[in-house]
Amino acid sequence: MTEETPGFEEKPDVPSGATPEDAEPKAAPSSASAEGAAPAGDANQTAALVAQLDQVRTALGERTADLQRLQAEYQNYRRRVERDRIAVKEIAIANLLTELLPVLDDIGRAREHGELVGGFKSVAESLETTAAKMGLQQFGKEGEPFDPTIH
């Protein structure tokens, strides 16, 4: 912070070579001359500003519409990608289980003929557990009538 010297008043900047009277504020031009020139200049300036404001508002409206459209497209894209991802996962699981069903049937037939032993038993149990985690469920009992709505 600087200290001001007492007794000095701050004056507006005066161009070099100007007299002290130039630094004093001058009275506004007479109202008669100002009124005659002002309406024509102000009307033109106002019209130009209004036109410019309308252009800016139009551009803003267009950009807002573009932004809203892009946001909607992005949300639709995300939903579609998520839906497709789920569909691909379900199809992959269905294809895998379709290929594993004959193997699981063979394991079931082998179990009917005798006790599974050793490593084959643990592999069969692991395979059945994994298939169950993927959503494969055994339904119906032997001797039960065939129901085409379930099977």
Explain the overall architecture.
The protein has 151 residues and is mainly α. The model is unreliable at 28-37 (pLDDT under 50). It has a domain at 44-133. The chain has helices at residues 20-23, 31-113, 118-133. The N and C termini lie far apart (92 Å). 68% of the residues lie in helices and 0% in strands. Helix 2 (31-113) runs antiparallel to helix 3.
Total beta strands: 0
- Tell me the number of helical segments per DSSP (H or I, 4 or more residues long): 3
Uncertain segments: 28-37
Strand percentage lies at under 5%
How does the major sheet shape up? Answer: none
| Overall helicity | 55-70%
The run of helices and strands is: HHH
Could you report the average pLDDT, rounded to the nearest whole number? 80
Amino-to-carboxy terminus distance = 92 Å
SSE-based structural type: mainly alpha
Q: Outline, from the CA principal axes?
A: rod-shaped
Rg calculated over all Cα atoms:
44 Å
Give me a quick take on this structure.
This protein is an all-alpha fold.
